[in-house]
UniProtKB/TrEMBL annotation:
EC code: 3.6.1.-
Protein name in UniProt: RNA pyrophosphohydrolase
Enzyme class: hydrolase
PROSITE patterns linked: NUDIX (PS51462), NUDIX_BOX (PS00893)
Taxonomic source organism: Komagataeibacter saccharivorans
Gene for this chain: rppH
Amino acid sequence: MTDPATLPYRPNVGALVFNRQGMVLVARRTDMPGAGGPPDEGVWQCPQGGIDEGEAPEAAVLREVREEIGTSAVQVIGTYPEWLSYDLPAHLIGRALGGRYRGQTQRWFALRFTGHDADIRLDTHLPAEFDLWKWVRLEQLPHLNVGIKKEIYTKLADYFARYAVAA
């Protein structure tokens, strides 16, 4: 068994995408239980992904949004002031994230969605990471089934609350 203390955290970015009404986008993961089922099931998350070698976090978050939800109709409007880290559950150490990391350290951004709902396309990333998406009130985010990221989403909901208003 791999000792988690010997593994680094994977550098990652995440995006809270706010629409004009101040709602935040969440999407249901295709690789977790509940995918493909009724809309009230599954594990939900905000767009996120790894930072490529030499890539700046802001460039990475814009790339991840484009790759995962198929749109570039976003603008960065805020940044969480520090990196947030989470550990993988013990049964995933050595398996998830290519087996090379104990978890992820993330730089989170608030983005304003400037497009239309039809601009959000989950079919542009193959294989698709998400099978459904929806707008939710920011304060709902930590109460969804967000898997192991509940603590992070709670911090983000508190910090980015100023963007959860109509623009």
